[in-house]
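Sequence design from tokenized structure. All designs in this work follow the same two-part layout: the structure record, then the generated sequence. An example of the structure record is given first.
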């Protein structure tokens, strides 16, 4: 007995077009057809989105002794979507001492997954 492929509609975010892409996934989870993409990046994006969706996490962490109480941080590499909330919760416990430099690694290799949390701004020491 053959099964009809599942069809997912995904808005592609790889270029400014925002194409609505139809992705056909067979019963074994294999992408069998992609349509509606305006460029080849769409195929790559939706295939990744079906197999292993990933996201960048932008958030903040607390700063002790700084001119600002928080510093913006992010994950320079996309992380598995299912781990976003877990990492976001973990950032609530992080407190860094001022000064903080733009690009400074705040958290290295989170959970041994190769995920870094990096400052995307600077905070000087309060006078």
């Amino acid at each position: 007995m053959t099964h009809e492929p599942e069809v997912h509609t995904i808005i592609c975010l790889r270029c400014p077009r925002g194409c609505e892409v139809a992705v056909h996934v067979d019963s074994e989870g294999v992408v069998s057809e992609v349509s509606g993409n305006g460029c080849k990046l769409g195929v790559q994006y939706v295939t990744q989105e079906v197999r292993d969706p990933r996201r960048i996490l932008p958030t903040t962490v607390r700063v002790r002794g700084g001119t600002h109480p928080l510093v913006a941080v992010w994950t320079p590499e996309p992380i598995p979507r299912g781990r976003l909330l877990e990492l976001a919760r973990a950032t609530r416990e992080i407190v860094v001492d001022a000064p903080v430099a733009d690009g400074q690694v705040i958290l290295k290799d989170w959970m041994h997954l190769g995920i870094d949390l990096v400052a995307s701004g600077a905070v000087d020491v309060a006078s």
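The chain has a mean pLDDT of 93. We note this feature because it recurs in several other targets discussed in the main text.
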